[in-house]
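Internal tracking record. Fields below are filled automatically when a chain is submitted to the structure queue. Please do not edit lines marked as system-generated. If the sequence contains nonstandard residues, flag them in the REMARKS field before resubmitting.
Queue: standard
Priority: normal
Entity type: single polypeptide chain
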Amino acid sequence: MHIHHDESRRAFLRRAALLGLAGTAAPFAGTLGAIGEAAAATGSGYKALVCVFLNGGCDYANTLVPYDQSSYEAYAKVRGAIALGRDTLSPLSTDGLSGGRQYAMAPALAPLAELYAQGKVAPILNVGTLVQPTTKAQYNNKSVLLPPKLFSHNDQSSYFQASSPEGAPSGWGGRIGDLMQSGNGAASLTCINASGNAVYLTGRQAVQYAVGTGGPIPLLSSSKTIYGSAVAAQTLRDLMTRGNPNMLANEHARVSKRALDTFAQVNAALAGAPVGNFTLFPTGNGLADQLKMVARMIAVAGDLGVRRQVFFVSMGGFDVHDNILTTQPTLLGRVAAAMRAFHDTTVQMGVADQVTSFTASEFGRTLSSNGDGSDHGWGSMHFAMGGAVKGGRFYGTAPTVGVNTNDDVGQGRLIPTTSVDQYAATLASWFGVGTSDLRTVLPNIGNYDASSWNLGFV
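SYSTEM-GENERATED OUTPUT FOLLOWS
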């Protein structure tokens, strides 16, 4: 029987044998100049886009806190016992805000507040999943399409990353990778996940390559022998990579060979980038460990022949239904320490202008307290960071602080005024995605006026 080699089969095979193996292992850039040399040779330079996903739904109100007197009073009235004290906060400059509005970053984010003052961090206000621009009246009247299963962790994580609920076949980071991988010497190293697996980095053609905090994990643990036999080990490798007339077996062999070859390539490159060059990252911080691995991969990008890379890292614990005043500061402190170390490392490497990082989370949370925590929300506040970021000012629209305002659907669940599509389109445009390709990457972007596709923060 003839079997058609259609795209769905190919997609299944790609996902059934993902190229990347999660990993552990090695170093930094032995040849930081290689990135610059590659840029000179190609004329298009190197760029990296780094998604920092905060799993659980990051509480927006205790991350970016209303500070002007009237807004703070409204915030404190609704939050009650879980409000941060105004005397513990330091306001940020008000560039980009109007109507006397002010915000302060949570005290735990002080390292990022310093970068805001240096113009390297930009807060983007009230970002969230949307299908199209949505007002409260439209929401109440059910006269617009809404993301399915609002307030659901799994579905909104997927919708943020893919513009589609749980089960999405590809994400917008991977779709960016689809457009960029042909320009990379090692196409398989376009989309790199330091956090396991995420739909964000799955493309229609691009396959995410997973690494661990120490480097790529080798197939068969790089064992030279099996039960003491080198012949047995080599025979097994030969069997795993040998062509086969059976379609599935042949595809498995092809992917196995690619995995072995890519591991050898990456491992050799990282061997020239000593770990000792990455001393700024704190220990005991899982997010910092992931970003350290990202920095190491960026450091050897020239050696690997890549000019565009999309990375994904993540951290959990943000589902703060209780103990928010204890849990949230600890989490935000780890995020700030990890992101600041990453930025400062890119400065040391001389590539800060070529690396843009941004935060993401499935949703924000309620402004109102449930006692000592907050519940699932919708819109949230996010940050972009990097040398190319036009920081030191705010982007987007500051929502009215309160409950049952025109900006929320109850309990302070914000109706997003900046869509994930606009947020992503701004990042994708900086990365080199052409305007005509944005509809391919972001299927809902056409629902917005083209003048609003680029928010201008990078």
